[in-house]
Amino acid sequence: MFEFYNLFLSVRRLDIPVICAANGHAIGAGLSLTFACDIRIFSNEAKYQFNFVKLGIHPGMGSSYIVKELFGTHIANRLLFLAETLNGEEAFRLGLCNDSVPQKEVLGRATEIAIALSESAPLALGELKKNTYDREKLEAALRKEAESQARNFISADFKETIKAIEQKRKPVFKGL
């Protein structure tokens, strides 16, 4: 899992700002990827949620670290523990994205930001990005998450998740 997540989150290591144009739902790992990006534009109409705990597994994709790093413990706990579903406007009010616009305007808004960024000095942007994030802490968090998920994947709770999905019902977790 660590290698997969590390590769998936390589956008964090790019020397240029990465813009996310989320014009549809971003759930679980999809939402994690949006938060790995530097600038996020969300669709007003789309749904955003971390559903990991509802599936019986520890959050992955660096979520436990990135969400806390970006938004603080209070918001991280709300998103990760409660698995709340938000629309783009709610996400914007919480500061989870830089802008929330109607779905048909997401790519246009992201393009406007890309043009604005292109007028800045690339070396300065690269240095700024390098100094903005703590790569070692993210890597350590990825390792911890991979270990936690490995334990969760062999748990009775995760097996219950699979059964519940097959039977089209909510899982009943027992902490085993």
UniProtKB/TrEMBL annotation:
SUPFAM superfamilies: ClpP/crotonase
Domain of life where this protein originates: Bacteria
Keywords associated with the record: Isomerase
Transmembrane regions: none
Molecular function terms from GO: isomerase activity
Entries under Pfam families matching the protein: ECH_1 (PF00378)
Name of the protein described by the UniProt record: Enoyl-CoA hydratase/isomerase family protein
